[in-house]
């Protein structure tokens, strides 16, 4: 009992102590707003957080000490999350865009504050897709996020690394070859690249999507000669991108498109196997691999079906069905079952045609 009371007291101390970094004028509303959110009283939470957001904007920046815009935007994000959770996407969208606009209009932001702006822009791009805004709106947010993160990475490089002799300003910058600042993770850089790549793939611009996917993949999965070890999550996300590349290859000109698509799909499968082996029972980051595995097996089955190899195709569809069932992936289960029925009909039709030809020959 004493241990339980002590643990509870320590938890409450942590909960309340994190608010001391904010000025007293907003501290109480922030604390009450977060508490109401945890109690699922979203209307009350919104009232407190909105008042904290409005009050914060009237205070001089010196009241927020170091990296003030990180703290200010943090209040906006907390408010926007509550609005979206309360099924009010339009006000949430407005709060996010207002917070981003403030960050964009400030000179001399710290690196972390600039990355906060990148994250908000990527969130706005995601919301533009989910809530069916015009494609131009989604592209605008995601393009800004990618351009800003590339500026951040490029500015952090030694002059001789960025300005290679004989290279023009338009020379592509391979992100995997550069040293990222300590406050920027590979996922921070890769996420906006991946999001913009998905947008271009959806909009029928495979050449743009391919370039972005390749950059993001090179960040997540180091080359064989590299000494850097990718984490399980990085390997799984890289495998997912390779599977996306496989899908994109089919939009290219024949006859190489199918061969390249199969190459990327098999590479994705190999990376998944490596990630699962390196995880050694640790489930952190492995969920992406489990879902990507079902998709890759299905894609490989589709490619072999297109090539007329029904036997191997059926085996892959069956493996995808088993994997989808195991992880509760309903859509994957339905697609795999439909594909297996299609293969069965094709094999029966092929057998009937062969039997007819044999009879006519006799």
UniProtKB/TrEMBL annotation:
Family matches, as Gene3D superfamilies: Tetratricopeptide repeat domain (1.25.40.10)
Designated name of the protein: TPR repeat-containing protein P27G11.02
